[in-house]
C-alpha cells in the first residue's frame, strides 16, 4: 500500500527534492554553460500495480533514461528520464555544438550516464544528508525504452507485493538552447517505513 502522508510530510518531501534538484541543476548549468530553469517538483506515490498506467498517461511514448540503484536507510532504484527525441539535443548541449551527429550519437549513452550520475547522486545525497541518514549508489546505466515497458526495464515489482514508487516530476529548460524536457525520479520504496520515520524525525527537529 502507498503511505498515508500528512500535508506537512508531503510538503517536506517536495522541499527536500526541491533542494536536491536545485543543487543538481547548479551542477548541470556548469556542465552545459547555460542557466537551467526548474519547476516546483510534482510528487506522486504510486503502487506498482497502477504505475504503468500513470507512466503512459504522463510521459512521452519513448524515453531515454539513466537508472541507478541505491542502498542505505532506504533501498531501490532511481531513474532520470527524458523524451528520447530530445536526448541528442541534451547530449549536444553537454558535449558542444561543434561535434558531428555521428560523434554525438556514439557518445550518447556514456554522456547520459555521466549526467545521470551527477543529477541522481546530488538528489539522493541531499535527501539522505538532510534527513541525517546514509545512502550508497551504484554505477548508473543509460537506456532507451518505450514507456509501457518502463516498469519492467527498471526491474520494479508489479505483483502486488506492497512495493511502491515515489514519482517526482520536474520540468526543466536550458535558457540559451530552449531545450525542454523533464526529470522524473522513480524510487522503489520497499523500505517506506524507514523513509517516513526519517521524515517525521526531520519534522520534529524543524519544530523543536
UniProtKB/TrEMBL annotation:
Which SUPFAM superfamilies would you find in this protein's record? Answer: CheC-like
Q: Please list the GO terms describing molecular function.
A: hydrolase activity
Positions of the CheC-like protein domain: 11-42
Instruction: Please report a single Pfam family linked to this protein.
Output: CheC
What keyword terms does UniProt attach to this protein? Chemotaxis, Hydrolase
Tell me which Gene Ontology terms the entry assigns under biological process.
Answer: chemotaxis
Matching InterPro entries: CheC (IPR007597), CheC-like_sf (IPR028976), CheZ_family_phosphatases (IPR050992)
Q: Which PANTHER family match?
A: PROTEIN PHOSPHATASE CHEZ
**Protein name as it appears in the record:** CheC-like protein domain-containing protein
Organism in which the protein naturally occurs: Oceanisphaera psychrotolerans
Amino acid at each position: 500500500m502507498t503511505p498515508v502522508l500528512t500535508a506537512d510530510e508531503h510538503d517536506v518531501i517536495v522541499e527536500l527534492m526541491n533542494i536536491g534538484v536545485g543543487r543538481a541543476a547548479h551542477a548541470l548549468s556548469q556542465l552545459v554553460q547555460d542557466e537551467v530553469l526548474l519547476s516546483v517538483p510534482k510528487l506522486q506515490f504510486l503502487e506498482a500495480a497502477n504505475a504503468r498506467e500513470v507512466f503512459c498517461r504522463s510521459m512521452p511514448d519513448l524515453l531515454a533514461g539513466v537508472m541507478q540503484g541505491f542502498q542505505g536507510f532506504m533501498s531501490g532504484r532511481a531513474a532520470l528520464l527524458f523524451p528520447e527525441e530530445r536526448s541528442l539535443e541534451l547530449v549536444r548541449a553537454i558535449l558542444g555544438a561543434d561535434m558531428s551527429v555521428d560523434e554525438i550519437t556514439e557518445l550518447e549513452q556514456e554522456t547520459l550516464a555521466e549526467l545521470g550520475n551527477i543529477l541522481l547522486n546530488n538528489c539522493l545525497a541531499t535527501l539522505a544528508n538532510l534527513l541525517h541518514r546514509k545512502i550508497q549508489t551504484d554505477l548508473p546505466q543509460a537506456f532507451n525504452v518505450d514507456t509501457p515497458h518502463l516498469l519492467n526495464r527498471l526491474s520494479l515489482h508489479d505483483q502486488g507485493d506492497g512495493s511502491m514508487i515515489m514519482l517526482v516530476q520536474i520540468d526543466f529548460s536550458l535558457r540559451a538552447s530552449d531545450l525542454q524536457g523533464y526529470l522524473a525520479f522513480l524510487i522503489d520504496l520497499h523500505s517506506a517505513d524507514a523513509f517516513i520515520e526519517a521524515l517525521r524525525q526531520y519534522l520534529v527537529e524543524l519544530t523543536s
